[in-house]
TrEMBL record:
This is DEAD/DEAH-box helicase domain-containing protein. It comes from Saccharomyces cerevisiae (strain YJM789). It comes from the Eukaryota. One of its GO terms (cellular component) is cytoplasm. Pfam families: DEAD. Residues 296-430 form the DEAD/DEAH-box helicase domain. PANTHER family: FANCONI ANEMIA GROUP M PROTEIN (PTHR14074:SF39), HELICASE WITH DEATH DOMAIN-RELATED (PTHR14074). One of its GO terms (molecular function) is nucleic acid binding.
Amino acid sequence: MWMIHFAVGYPYRYPELQLLAFAGPQRNVYVDDTTRRIQLYTDYNKNGSSEPRLKTLDGLTSDYLFYFVTVLRQMQICALGNSYHAFKNDPWMDVVGFEDPDQVTNRDTSRIVLYSYLFLNTAKGCLVEYATFRQYMRELPKNAPQKLNFREMRQGLIALGRHCVDSRFEIDLYESATSELMANHSVQTGRNIYGVDSFSLTSVSGTTATLLQERASERWIQWLGLESDYHCSSSSTRNAGDVVADEASLGHHQKNLRVLRKKRPREPKSTNDILVAGQKLFGSSFEFRDLHQLRLCYEIYMADTPSVAVQASPGYGKTELFHLPLIALASKSDVKYVSFLFVPYTVLLANCMIRLGRGGCLNVAPVRNFIEEGYDGVTDLYVGIYDDLASDNFTDRIAAWDDIVGCTFRTNNVKLGYLIVDEFHNLETEVYR
């Protein structure tokens, strides 16, 4: 309970912590199928309403909790034996599997509880009471000169999230407001700004609400340093496009080293940028195909990952995974991003340019223009073939990017964006590999 209480950084009311269940009709403990981290769907009934909150645990706490459920709880059940009957049927339990709930015995109830709820006092036949948890709060942490009660700890967690965690990361209005809602109070209560109190997680799409809450937990986990592989849009971490080569392995190839050191800039980004891009391209009814597609598109646009490989069946929408981030970058008014896309064969070139340029969302041109004449100051995306990518002339243009752009346009606001290799599985079959 202690680890779960602090792992996500956003406080619980005690009934939320007490009623965590890994099975049964009241189940609220799940495992994310991608990250393998445990997620908790908790809720708190305040003023007659209850809105679920998604809280994601760090990897270590997830491992402990998974071990507790799959190993320690099974050992506990074996130790208690088939005759264990300390729990009585209470109204808060949803008794399933019985035609007549009135005929359920204490033995039946005890078995249901053992296979459903996380935190139990098997000696008393009840869920872990607040007094029991409070006893540990008087003892832990051992080296703290002053121990806090549950309410004081809750307010402390809220303050840390607001003034320390969120201030370190580049977050937009929705993410900031989500942090307040994760604390189980309104934005007005948290910030005393009535003008944004209309925001709730029901005012955005379901996938967006999920992502906002996941990112809130990620910021806390990364701020504490619980996991090194949790990525957020942080001003203190590498930018999403930073790829620095190992000088020892490159040796005398200084020209290639300069190319690999090109950076994507750190201008503020928002999860809303992708949704706006989707609406520009597909209309106001745009939605992602599924949660995995949404997460991957946000990973490409916002995270620190230097490269992302995507493999999916035909028709899944792989092109949109980079098309939407390209449109989002092109919408930035304070900086001009220039990206490059390469396809295997010339026969694919014209169709690709038409497809990516539809709707007027992107200015698209052949990469040959860039190789022969340099950057024209207008194009958002240059499209070429693998041979263009492998040419020395292209490498020279990229290596001299900063000098040429600075002299030609007298500005530092023209920056390199993405390098996209489409149909990547063809790369190893040709001589230019």
